[in-house]
């Protein structure tokens, strides 16, 4: 199985973002958490910051939008060159229309679900997406504990994708660390977002290698 490790710069030093992304050059992508203080009770940054991170990052950008007005804002992240743009199922009435627009701009389209959101209504939409993000914490903050109870959703997505022969990446985000990543991998995740366990480590590169190894066992 391919294992992808996407460190989240939510846990990096916001005044030293260039140094932060340079420290994770061995990652598969940099996970960029955009929050608007409406969809989640926290506020991070917007397109101009993401454009600058994109300009200096050695790895592609995996943008995770935790915002309400995705129809207005999501296309701009695809236009600035983000490798993938993931929006929340809870934030739009037309996930398929937005996914098609993102793909037409040239970005991978991702759909995210909060821990309390059932996955069943979205399983039939999987062919419209390149990746599915199952939140393993309540979105909004780094450093929370991994919620094992959402892993059946990961397994459900993996099973539908495999049965249908879909090449969709299954991502988990929140509380991913050396002691939790194997369960997520076993449930069927192949793409792992890790904030505090990478940027909180003395050596982010070593932390990435450790997560990669733990996911593969
Ligand atoms: C939470 C964000 C995550 C967060 C993960 O709302 O979507 O990407 O940075 O942080 P950790 O890995 O510390 O749980
Ligand atoms: Zn995230």
TrEMBL record:
Catalytic activity: D-ribulose 5-phosphate = D-xylulose 5-phosphate
Pathway involvement of the protein, from the record: Carbohydrate degradation
Ranges annotated as spanning the membrane: none
Binding site for a divalent metal cation: 31, 33, 64, 173
Active site per database record: 33, 173
Signal peptide: none
PROSITE patterns: RIBUL_P_3_EPIMER_1, RIBUL_P_3_EPIMER_2
Pfam families documented for this protein: Ribul_P_3_epim
Annotated residues for binding of substrate: 8, 64, 140-143, 173-175, 195-196
Alphabetized UniProt keyword annotations: Carbohydrate metabolism, Isomerase, Metal-binding
Cofactor(s) in the UniProt record: Mn(2+); Fe(2+); a divalent metal cation; Co(2+)
Alphabetized SUPFAM superfamilies for the sequence: Ribulose-phoshate binding barrel (SSF51366)
EC number: 5.1.3.1
Cofactor note (record): Binds 1 divalent metal cation per subunit.
EC category name: isomerase
InterPro entries attached to this UniProt entry: Aldolase_TIM (IPR013785), Ribul_P_3_epim (IPR026019), Ribul_P_3_epim-like (IPR000056), RibuloseP-bd_barrel (IPR011060)
An annotated Gene Ontology molecular function: D-ribulose-phosphate 3-epimerase activity
HAMAP family cross-referenced by the UniProt entry: RPE
Family, similarity comment: Belongs to the ribulose-phosphate 3-epimerase family.
Functional note: Catalyzes the reversible epimerization of D-ribulose 5-phosphate to D-xylulose 5-phosphate.
Name of the protein this chain belongs to: Ribulose-phosphate 3-epimerase
The species this protein was found in: Lysinimonas soli
Annotated gene: rpe
